[in-house]
Amino acid sequence: MIIVRFSTSLKEHFEFRRLYSKGKSAVGPNIVLYARKRDRRENRIGITVSAKLAKAVRRNRVRRRLREAYRLNEEKFLPGVDLVAVVRGRGVSAPYRVLERELLELAGRLGLLR
Fold first, then answer.
1. Residue 62 has pLDDT above 60, yes or no
2. Distances from the Cα of 27 to the Cα of 32, 49, 99, angstroms
C-alpha cells in the first residue's frame, strides 16, 4: 500500500476569503466545494461547518468524516490546489459514504481529479 501525502490544512481566514471570492465552486446537497489552483505542488484543504447547523460534537464529526474521505482519496486529486468544503444543513447528518461520493463528484465537476 502506497501512502501519498501531499496535503496540508488551510487555516488562515484570509485564505478562506480568497477562495470564496476568486475560486471556482460546485454545489451539492450536502457540500459546497470551492477550489483554486496555486503554483505549489501540495494541496491545502479546509473544512467549515457553521455553528448554526449543530453543536460542536456533530460539527466535529462531519469534519472528521470529510477529512477522512479526502485522505483516503487524496491520490485521485490533482496537485497544486486549494480546497474548501463548506458543509450545508443536510450534510451534518449525512452518512460517510454519501459525503465521500459527493466530495468526489464535486471535485470531478471542478476538474480536480486525475
1. yes
2. 5, 15, 13
